[in-house]
Automatic annotation (TrEMBL):
GO terms for cellular component: plasma membrane. The keyword Cell membrane applies. It is found in: Cell membrane. The lineage of its organism: Bacteria, Pseudomonadati, Pseudomonadota, Betaproteobacteria, Neisseriales. It is a multi-pass membrane protein. This is Cobalamin biosynthesis protein CobD.
Length: 330
């Protein structure tokens, strides 16, 4: 079997050969992690993230004095130890046997990636709408997004579900995958997910006097800059290219969060569906800019959105395979 030779290759390979082996290990790790997550999704049962959340809360309680430097120090204490530990374990296992390093990659990816995190919610909402159980669909959407959904129509439920699914797919799949491929071992995947969590937890505050979370928000935005655009480009390639690019260029900046605007506008154009638009929530109208071109959102577009995300993820895996082949031939 081919993997029986991997340990010897990992020990004796140098230069381009070692780069090829690392790329191959990256591809194998991604495939196995995605397969494992499909077979046994963690969902909200991820105790590692619950532990990290408690740790982040502890740091905030003890270090938040409202200054930016305190936020930087807390961010470093939260991020660097687990990332460096994951990298140290990876190199120790790689020196012993590259197969052990692959298993470590798969474990960390399994804990950090989450394709089923959004696809299961998609399926629950889609099935409820198909069976005419609008109330169940509203409840499922409210649990998923944390927003009130009691007044939403079927079209509005579909719109919000697609929007949340696109953003979640980026955060739990594409952003994590990008940094895993770019940095050695599983350190990139862990770095991105921890930074993303702290960016949402600390960096989303609007209070001018609270500068504690400013660095966390900036770090998350910096890590998102390139993978957001690569994800949007993938949506364009795997969907309606011209409409996706047009919506990206003309509509993304109208959204409150520009990074999310890029993702949603390109996905809407690629799918040929209208997203955004006003919503009825809390007995009032919540005005939002229109994104996308084409048809009004309906339950059928939920399956189309999942298909777009899957095709884009397979495209990324194919690119990693091409990079491995190119390094081998160099």
């Amino acid at each position: 079997m081919w993997w029986a030779y991997l340990p010897l290759c990992g020990i004796f390979a140098t230069g381009p050969e070692q780069t090829t082996i690392h790329n191959l290990m990256t591809l194998i790790s991604l495939i196995f992690a995605l397969a494992l997550e499909q077979l046994r999704p963690l969902g909200n049962r991820n105790r590692v993230w619950h532990i990290f959340t408690r740790y982040a809360n502890h740091l905030e309680r003890n270090l938040n004095a409202g200054a930016n430097r305190h936020g930087v120090f807390a961010w470093m204490l939260a991020i660097l130890p687990p990332v460096l530990l994951s990298l140290g374990v990876y190199y120790a296992l790689y020196a012993a046997n590259p197969l052990l390093a692959i298993l470590w990659n798969v474990l960390v990816l399994y804990l950090t990636m989450g394709f089923r995190h959004f696809s299961s919610a998609f399926s629950e909402i889609s099935l409820a709408l198909a069976e005419g159980r609008d109330l169940d669909a509203r409840l499922a959407l409210s649990r998923w997004t944390g927003q009130p959904a009691a007044e939403l129509s079927v079209g509005e439920i579909s719109r919000l579900a697609i929007e949340q699914g696109v953003v979640d797919s980026y955060r739990h799949v594409f952003g994590t995958m990008f940094w895993f491929v770019l940095l050695p071992g599983p350190s990139g995947a862990l770095l991105y997910r921890l930074c993303s969590m702290l960016g949402q937890k600390w960096g989303s505050r609007q209070a001018e006097e609270d500068r504690f979370g400013r660095f966390a928000g900036s770090a998350a935005a910096w890590l998102d800059w390139l993978p957001v655009r690569l994800t949007a480009a993938s949506f364009a390639v795997m969907g309606d290219f011209e409409d996706a690019v047009y919506c990206w260029r003309s509509q993304a900046r109208t959204w409150g969060n520009y990074a999310n605007g890029i993702l949603l506008a390109s996905a809407a154009g690629a799918l040929g569906v209208k997203l955004g638009d006003p919503l009825r929530q809390d007995y009032s109208i919540k005005f939002r800019p229109e994104l996308g071109l084409g048809d009004e959102a309906d339950p059928a577009f939920l399956k189309s959105a999942v298909g777009l995300v899957w095709r884009s993820a397979l495209l990324w895996l194919f690119v990693v395979l091409l990079l491995s082949i190119a390094n081998h031939m160099a």
